[in-house]
Amino acid sequence: MRQVISKALWRASLVASTMLASPVMAQQRPTEPAPTAEGANAAAGRAGATAPDATVQGAVAQDVAPAQAEPQRDVVVTGSRIISSGFTAPTPTQVLSYEAITKNAQPNIFTTVAQLPSLQGSTGASVGANGTSTGVQGLSTLSLRGLQPIRTLTLIDGQRVVGANVTGVADVSLFPQLLIERVDVVTGGASASYGSDAVGGVVNFITNTRFEGFRANAQTGISTYGDDHNYTFQAALGRAFMQDRLHVILSGEYSHEDGIPSAGFGVGNSPDGDGPNGRDWLVARGVLNRGITRDGLPQYLYRDHVQSTLFGRFGLINSGPLQGTAFDGNGNPVPFRYGTECVPGSCVGGDLSGSVANGNSLKSAIGRLNTYGRVGFDIDPNNEIYGTFNVAEVKTSNTPNPGFAQDNLTIQCSNPFVPAAVQAACAANGITSFRFGTVNPMFDFIDVNTRRRQYRFVGGAKGKVAVFGTDWRYDAYYQHGTEITDINVSNIALMPRYRAAVQAVRGPNGVITCADPIAVANGCSPLNVFGNVTPSDATRDYITPPNGPFQHTRQTQDVAGLSVSGETFDLPAGPLAVALGSEFRHEFYRVNADPYGNGVNVAGSAYGADYPADPLLSKGGGNWYAGNYRNGGGGYDVLEAFLELNAPIINSQEFGRANLNVAGRATNYSTSGTVYTWKIGGTFDTAIDGFRLRAVTSRDIRAPNLSELFAAPVTSNRTGTIDPFNNNRSITVLQTTTGNPNLKPEIARNTELGMVLSRPSWLPGLSLSFDYFKIDIRNAISALDAQTQINLCFGGVSFTCGSFDLSNLDSAYVTVQPFNFASIKTDGFDIEGSYRTELDGIGLPGRFTVRALATHTMNFIQDTGLPNTIPKQLAGTNIEATAVPHWKLLATQDYSTDLFSFTLQERWFSAGVLSNENIVCSTNCPVSTVNHPTYDYNRVPGAFYLDVSTSYKFTPHISGYFKIDNLLNRDAETVPGNITTPTLYDVVGRAFRLGFRANF
């Protein structure tokens, strides 16, 4: 009988919550039982078994005063650790319901969450697709407020997750997605409640820990261009045993997305564009640097169809008396077409067939395999012990570029591969060598394959016990997580061998061989770089050996935590609620790399059977064209304790109801000592019908992560840069990234002020909210990119001058290292509105819901604090990886009946600029400077996307659905230097998905 009653109450709670749910965001009222992670036990009144953050109040509806006729219920808010009847936290919390997740019908729940306007700068399969060794390929991480994923804390059921990258960020692709009942997004600082990393906020994935029955989902999809084919299979099974005391849940899922592969050389250079599979929006867009700063004209020119004039597809002599001699596919000399508008190193138009900048994968291929299980046993109706496991794997692959361009090769005129006509021209001009550039089309495209495996285990106990006549709730758990990441790069060159193979001579026997006898003795086979002559197997294996760059990373995270919550004594307006607890955490990583990239520690030692010793290769490492990984490791411990109080201040019919919420946390890091965080906030339910005010201010922190502290120097990739010290020549440099053990924690001050109108008696289906936010981060940890460091040094900032050396083109490098610079400041506001109504009043079945969420970022100011620099205003810049447009909007309109639903969804962000510091002019331009360069164009368009979905229930347990994303096939925009901004623009285009769900 108890089980029957429990299930009946659970169904009743679902009905109540459905009355308030929406396709975008479900709103939970403090007077209603939530469709929580605990499912049946919460609805059955077993609040003692509820985790401290298992239920949450919506960003609007969490602030509604409970109706007097309804019974008070315990409500737990992710932004707080307090568990108390009628409690409402001052921090706004957005909630994605299970209904919203299923109607969005994405292969990865990450995409659904990342569409919320408050989330900006999240990474995904289309971000980092042009990186060789960044480690973010296909990494699904969430970022609030554009502050990067490292400043957003992502949890599962209120618990930390082992990082999927040495930066410590969690990969949502590794989560058990079918059992996620709700996603809580706390849009403000929460370090006092949850510790480090919660500077931008918290994203908490709540699973259904009391799931019973069978649930399945099968889905397939494809883009309108015939690529990015994807399919997903998910199933979950839950059973209760031993008179509903033992609960067992198992789930598994597999998902695969083909991605959008490289389209090869010369992409985006036809008059109408020629992106992958007909995406005509992709053009070779770039910025020409005239190098002239004070002639009244802009220094930088924004142009389409820009190509380097330092290399050609099949080879180009790029300096000296033979400059302009190109080669066709057969290696014959032909005149190079330079185009109509040229600056040193670049032209507009002309022969653009060798362009590599737009030839990377637009979207990585990604495959996900996930298994999850939970066993819970009720010691009594109020206390439970449990254990969970999550074993998952994600594989991604991408092409960072279609070739490995070289623009500074010195070729001897006597090289036997040099055509006779060119040899004759050398003699006629009295030269013995020339500078040469090629994209090496004779080799296969570089391929980066990443495999992440996660093993996560949690054991714990939670419930409530009576102490001095009141109930006190507790939650104790231990979590161990292991993340193993393998990165393998193929079809990539060992540069010392490549340079040796290029220098060919004819031997005494007339056979062409490598010029260096040491190289010959170690297997060198010559390479013909003129034209597109297929190299021999010996040459290919010598330059691009099968055992390419490799990195194996093992990360571990151990967490033990205990928290308790209860009500102490009565104040005039109600009981004083208390939450307190402590947590210990150990983070560790170790990375091992191949010896060609890492180097050999013992001088003269062999590399091993798989990596034969070669005297041409540097034993210090850094031999690959890109992907020069290094061995490294490190770890730290964290010990912390927190206390939170909620004090009712006013509780009357005449004046309303108000409460004061305060919290503090002390955190000790083994690397940087002890820091303190706190928050002070409150809510005020006014006497005005349905109107509430809320405010909170907090001190939050982010400690440096494992990568920032301990990363060994990694020569990760070759980056195209401009050398202002030498007439703005275009050069390629090795970019080396390294850690900084002297980093200190960031300190942030968060402030939020809001007002809410929810379910007024004169229009009970209406909810509106407005929240202002301001975040000020001091001692912010970040690094300057290679070009910025060079430019600052050229502009007189000596701090960056020691980080690079451009004197030798063969070994030019820039070292990138994080440091505590001055500050990051951002402010703006969130607006949310919804209206829901039943349609029986007009004679129609079902209900209609309209909802919109918008975020307006007024300022996002980054200040390095370096001399001769100025703060940069990034709000409204739409080209950075962490682009923060001024406006971002998400809206839905949904009509649903018991059998059918139809949903429209609109996504929009506002137009922006290349940089707010640019000065736009065409004539009479001021002097162009590093801080305020002059441009002739500075606009990046916004975009509007329309999605449509429908579903139909064929039987009480089987339903089908159909979804079209980007119905109007709105193109992405090409932006200079970045191809596009995938954190904003949809690179896939119109996409179709069809699926079926089963619920028994």
Describe this structure in words.
This protein has 1000 residues and is mainly beta. The chain has a domain at 584-999: Maltoporin, Chain A (Beta Barrel), CATH 2.40.170. The chain is 9% helix and 44% strand. It is built from twelve helices and 52 strands. The strands form twelve sheets. The protein has a 22-stranded antiparallel beta barrel. The protein has a five-stranded mixed beta sheet with strand order 3-6-7-4-5. It is globular and about 100 Å long. It is found in: Cell outer membrane.
Write the layout of secondary structure elements.
Layout: H1 2-18, H2 40-43, E1 74-76, E2 83-85, E3 93-97, H3 98-104, H4 109-114, E4 152-156, E5 159-160, E6 180-186, H5 191-194, E7 201-207, E8 213-223, E9 230-241, E10 246-257, E11 285-289, E12 300-304, E13 306-308, E14 316-317, E15 325-327, E16 333-335, E17 341-343, E18 346-348, E19 365-380, E20 383-398, E21 406-412, H6 420-429, E22 433-438, E23 447-467, E24 470-490, H7 495-502, E25 504-506, E26 512-514, H8 517-521, H9 537-543, E27 550-571, E28 574-593, H10 595-598, E29 632-652, E30 656-669, E31 673-685, E32 691-702, H11 706-710, E33 714-723, E34 729-737, E35 746-758, E36 766-778, E37 781-782, H12 786-794, E38 804-805, E39 813-816, E40 819-820, E41 823-838, E42 847-863, E43 872-873, E44 887-896, E45 900-909, E46 912-913, E47 919-920, E48 934-935, E49 939-940, E50 943-953, E51 958-965, E52 991-999
Parallel strand pairs: 4-7, 34-39, 47-48
Antiparallel strand pairs: 1-2, 3-6, 4-5, 6-7, 8-9, 8-52, 9-10, 10-19, 11-12, 13-18, 14-22, 15-16, 17-18, 19-20, 20-23, 21-22, 23-24, 24-27, 25-26, 27-28, 28-29, 29-30, 30-31, 31-32, 32-35, 33-34, 35-36, 36-41, 37-40, 38-39, 41-42, 42-43, 42-44, 44-45, 45-50, 46-49, 50-51, 51-52
